[in-house]
Write a structure and sequence with these properties.
Shape: rod-shaped
Radius of gyration: 23 Å
Mean pLDDT: 89
Transmembrane segments: 12-37
Largest sheet: none
Keywords: Membrane, Transmembrane, Transmembrane helix
Order of helices and strands: H
Amino acid sequence: RRRRRKPFWPGLVVASGMLTGNLFTMFVLPTVCVWLARLRQHVRAKFSFISST
């Protein structure tokens, strides 16, 4: 009688989801924050004559 192997797909799905989440948190999110900060500086410099606060 042959032993039936358990599928490894659930573990693969969980591991790939964790990897994707970590990569998103470590690289994508900080990059977006830097882009937004640069955009904010650019907008403030361009429209500094409107409000001097």
